[in-house]
Amino acid sequence: MRTIFLLVFIFLVTCGCVKAQISVTGTVTDSLGKPLQSVSITLKKSNGIVLAFAITNNTGSYRIQYAGVFVKDSLLVEANAISFKKQTIPVTSATQTTNFKLSESTTKLPNVTVKAAPLKKEGDTLNYDVASFSTKQDRTIGDVIKKLPGVEVADNGQISYGGKPINRFYIDGDNLLDGKYNIATKGIPNDVVSKVQVLENHQPINVLKDAVKSESAAMNIVLKDKARLRIMGTGDAAVGTPSVYNVSANAMLFQKKVKFINYIKMNNMGTDNSDETINHFGGDDAQPVNLVSAGAGNPNLFKKRYLFNNVGLVNVNDLVNLKNDYQLRINAFYLWDRQFQSSQVKSNYFLPNDTIRYFEKQDTRTISNVFNTQFTLTANKKDYYLNNVTILENKPTEVFADLQSTTSNNITQYLNGTVTNVSNSFGYVKKSTNGQILSFGSSINIIHNPATFTVEPGLYPAQFNNNIAYAGLIQQAAVPTFLTDNHVSFSKIWPTFQMHNKIGVNYQAQQLNTFLESRQLNGSKAIVADSFINRLNWTRTRAYVETEFTYNKGIVTITGTVPFTYQDTRYTGRLVKNQMSNLLITPRAYFKFLTGKEAWIFLGYSYGDTYGGISQVYDSYVMKGYRSFFSNGTLLNESKTHGISGGYTFKNTLKIFFLTVQASYMKSESNTINDTRLSAVLQQSRLIPFINIFESTSASVNVSKYIFPLMTTITGRVNWQSSLGNGLQNGDLLQTQSDSYTYTAIVNSKLSSWFNMSYTGTYTTFGSKPIGNAHTTRPASPAVEKWQHEVSANFSISSDFYFRIGGDNYRYLIPGSQENNYTFVDAAFTYKFNKLKTDIELSLTNLANIDTYGTASLSSNSIVESSYRIRPRMALVKFYFRF
Amino acid sequence: MRKIILLSLFALSTSIALDAQEMDKAFASARYSFTHIMDTTQPDNPVKENMILLIGKNMSSYTSYDAIEFRKKRKANTTRMNGGVAESVSGGSGRGDVVGSGSAIYDLIDASNVYYKDQSGFKISYTAIADWKLFSIEEKMPVIKWNITQETKEIKGMPCQKAIGDFKGRSYEAWFCSQLPFSNGPWKLGGLPGLILEASDTRKEVMFQFTSFETDDSVKTIIQIPENAVKTTPEKFNEYEAAVKKNRSVSAMGGIMKLEDIPENETIRGADGNPIKRRRMNNPIEKDNSKK
Questions:
Q1: Which residues pair with B123 in a beta bridge?
Q2: What is the pLDDT of residue A6?
């Protein structure tokens, strides 16, 4: 019974419905009739949904069968194969033969590209995806590095990671520029870089890789393949009002064997090309200070706002990887720089019995030329390291300053000096077969810096020229210097314990020769007086033995260093002859503890015992300005400094979160104090014996976070510093405590494809109060407040047309002084000719045409008000090109 | 003794693949992220790897993209003479444990674990190493009976349609894109009228997820079964591999240690120094063939 029922049911179903079985067969051939294999044939509904399909076999034939379709549906058969034109034929009958003859064509396939994670961590390497942090308006990789979370870039271009400056900057793994990496950050276009890597705990010397742990990070720029193929050229040319120009041409090559960045740049629009000659890895060698200088200070504005210049720079950086792992590098530049400045300074010093006021109006012209050549030969092998650096530098500088002051209405200061510096440093590190490391280092440095400083007319004839009118004063000064340091070291490496022993000799020989001449009205010259002649011979020999222990196991690293230095200092002047020997023991210790995968705490202690140099012991006066005369007495300053610092670093690379908290305390005790004597016309200064204690405490918090949905990096910083120090002015001892707080917020956002913005805001308060001393009744001065905002908004109007508006605002609130508020607004339109690889930009700078800038600084006993002429409104048409 | 005979027989029966036609140039590449719960006791700890499918006119290859990147870095590290940059690499691909060293071994490893599909020959070859020899294990192109549904969705902006089919003991749900007219897909999957962009078995133990499709110059590499690979069949290879494993003395160097071969009581540490949670293979992608 049941089966009969079932049969009836099947009968009813098959007859009652308007369903049919569809069968399409046929062959697929190319235009010449050759059968095509592996072609997809689909039976489709008109809306594109595939119902059934077949793939052609090796004779090009196919067969599609499909059941259960309403006949009413309009169906299509489609043949689709790569490099052939797609063909669609309607289905007209239930069994149909359709032969396709496909014509060849190039099919454009859609690309679906991978969006790389903005930040990826692999071991000790952080990989920042450049595309994720780039906006269309960015031109160079430096524009992008600034925006990377966890990375800090200072105004001078120095890059820091985790609060510490980087120790190497590589381009595709090669150290082309050494510390002059501003050349790369300002020169390499961001669109040829695929990622920026931060290499944590980077030890640049291969031999020391597992032996000496580094706490510093390095940065590596990984280029895209296309940038490694051929010479890449970039350049720009711009003209504008008021008579400004900017031109540059840059040729770069980044191949495995040869890398170079060679360029020329010139402008008079306020761009300081000398930024690109800064060496961020410059040593802290005891370079002699220039005894005399001329010119006024700079306003605390962005340089582009106030710098009047005419500058040119030729920069040559070439690297060749030679055979046998040797690398030869030449870094040379020639900079010719003219800078102009106009300023007015009003200074008020409040002394217990007197108030002294100075007023100065100054026009300064500075002409400097720098020739610098550096040759470097490096071998960074697995078993040894060799490095030799030779630097030759010649730097003639001239400064002309025209002054109007309370002393005289028309003073001319003229400084002419040339610094010549020749140095060579050699380093060699060798690993022996049993894992011990031997190293040797030797450096030598010769510096000459003769300078002539002239002040006209003859001021203070009573003091300088027996009360006879005269033409002017001429200060001659030179500190020829010879420095050498030679050391050998021996390291023994165990898996968790390392010991480094170093022994060396450091020798410096210097002279300090100065004299002041007066030029008489008849042109003759005479030495002013004996008390203006310095003839100082100085030698300092240091022999040192240093032992460093490092213990490293799992999460703990402990380093202790105990250097013993025997120091012999001798100096002979016209009147003094002094010799002193000291044994200095200056231990340091460092402790680091990992609290998590990406978090650690550290604690450091250091003790320093330093003695002053030759520039602190000359006992005759040197004229440093028309109203400043300095001498130091014969006493050698000694400072003993204890420093403690600690901090906590936490990162979560996956969530792109960085946190650094640091605090430090420093106390130093010196045996001298600078005794400053002010009078209405003159300022004199010398060192006198005094137990001089300076204390400083500081703390900072730095947070950086990338917010994924908003494609935004937010950075926040708080710094606090408090210090306690002494000053001696006209016999009045001032003990001052000052506190400063700085709050910074930085936002970089790529909110949408047509809009991105960046903002940097800083709020600073600075207050100081006199303490301790009873005989002064000066009140604590209320805090100075300062706000600084910098904002830039970028709009993409179309894919090749952009608009940028931005500016900076500075606001000061100085108690007792008027509020200063300055706003600078800039705007720019950019049009990209994508085919020609050319951009044209029309930019307007300082739209409000603010031409003077005033500021004031306040200390517990002085107010200094300054005002500067700054760059007026500027309109510029600029072409950017690639070749 | 029996094993030695077996091995020699095996050696005799194999021939070196030197077919000049088995070569093609890729014009497109698709990348997938591959997830496999190989240890069902640890469903939260699957194997994850980025894979790349290189597509040529007649041939395609499918291999680990992570391994390619790893190789690039290794090469950069060993060939870069100027040194300096430490590109420390955590071997996420699970193929880092090599006994011995030297570029010959690296070359061998680099050539292994690649699936070659030959569309005209209707065959699929897989390269593997046993006893420090490279084998090309050839089988017929699987024919999966796909059942096309009318369900559609967009994957990374590409319109896709769902198909269901059984293969090697698992029931797969595959999303193909007829705008990309390649009857291809990740691993051994394929046979649909468009590239498979996403596939997973119904228990979500094996998943292939599409990440990108590119046709630029960077993908234009040669697809070719390595000439030094010895052609063989899956059955013969398995026999040989088992023999090598059982009788390590037969093999001069002991073959490649796989993570699974390391005794249970030994702790393995990852790049970060923490012990790796070890997985035991109890859930192969290809389940028992007879169940099909």
A1: B118, B140
A2: 53
Distance from CA of B168 to the nearest CA of A (A): 21
Name the residue among A179, A444, A394, A419 with its Cα closest to residue A289: A419
CB contact under 8 A, B161 and A202: no
Task: Compare B10 and A261 and report the one with higher pLDDT.
Answer: A261
Q: Which residues contact A167 (CB under 8 A, 6 or more apart)?
A: A202, A204, A214, A216, A217, A218, A281
Task: Identify whether the C-beta of residue A370 lies closer than 8 Å to the C-beta of residue A392.
Answer: no
Contact assignment for B181 to A112 by CB distance below 8 Å: no
Q: How far is B254 from chain A (nearest CA, A)?
A: 30
| Residues B212, A41: C-beta atoms closer than 8 Å | no
Residues on chain A touching B156 (C-beta within 8 angstroms)? 112
Give me the pLDDT at residue A669, please.
95
DSSP A80-123: E-TTB--EEEE--SSEEE--EEEPB-PPPPPPB-----SEEEET
Is the pLDDT at A119 greater than 60? The verdict is yes
CA distance B222 to A555: 47
Which amino acid belongs to residue A197?
A: Q
| CB A272, CB A156: distance < 8 Å | no
- Residues of chain A neighbouring B182 (CB-CB closer than 8 A): 82
A263: buried, middle or exposed (CB in 10 Å: 19+, 13-18, 0-12)? buried
Taking CA–CA distances from B151, the nearest residue in chain A reads: A49
Asked if the Cβ–Cβ distance from A80 to B193 is below 8 Å, we say: yes
Query: What mean pLDDT comes out for the span A476-488?
Result: 94
Q: What is the pLDDT of residues A345-367, one digit of tens each?
A: 888 887 777 788 888 898 999 99
Contact at CB, B86 and A199, closer than 8 angstroms: yes
Q: What's the half-sphere exposure (Cβ side, CA atoms, 13 Å) at B195?
A: 29
Residues of B in contact with A203 (CB under 8 A): 86
Instruction: Provide the number of CB pairs (under 8 Å) joining chain A to chain B.
Output: 123
**Pairwise CB contact (< 8 Å): A125 & B193:** no
Q: Which residues, in sequence order, are bridge partners of residue B222?
A: B25
**Which residue in B has a C-alpha nearest to residue A596's C-alpha?**
B272
Q: CA A302, CA A300: separation in Å to the nearest integer?
A: 7
Contact between A161 and A225 under an 8 Å Cβ cutoff? The reply is: no
> Is residue B48's pLDDT more than 70?
yes
Name the helix (H) or strand (E) containing A251. strand A244-254
Interface with chain A: mutation pick from B32, B85, B274, highest number of A CBs within 10 Å: B85
- Smallest CA-to-CA distance from A230 within A201, A211, A254, A248 is with A254
Cβ contacts (< 8 Å) between A321 and chain B: which residues? Answer: 81-82
Tell me the C-alpha distance between B220 and B55, whole Å.
9
- The angle at the Cα of A122, spanning A116 to A125, to the nearest 5 degrees, equals 100
Question: Distance between CA B16 and CA A880 in Å, rounded?
Answer: 58
Q: Please name the amino acid found at residue A265.
A: K
Q: Residue B115 is encoded by which pair of tokens?
A: 């699936």
**Chain A residues with CB-CB distance to B90 below 8 A:** 122-123
Rounded distance, CA A402 to CA A424, Å? 40
Are the beta carbons of A325 and B28 separated by less than 8 Å? no
Q: How far is B12 from chain A (nearest CA, A)?
A: 32
Separation of CA A90 from chain center:
67
Determine the Cα–Cα distance for residues A5 and A3; give it in Å rounded to an integer.
Answer: 5
Question: What pLDDT score was predicted for residue B79?
Answer: 47
Mean pLDDT: which of A226-240, A616-630, A811-825 is highest? A226-240
> How many residues appear in chain A?
883
Per-residue pLDDT reduced to its tens digit, A489-534: 999 888 888 899 999 999 999 999 999 999 998 888 888 888 889 9
Residue B101 backbone phi and psi in degrees, to 5: -155, -170
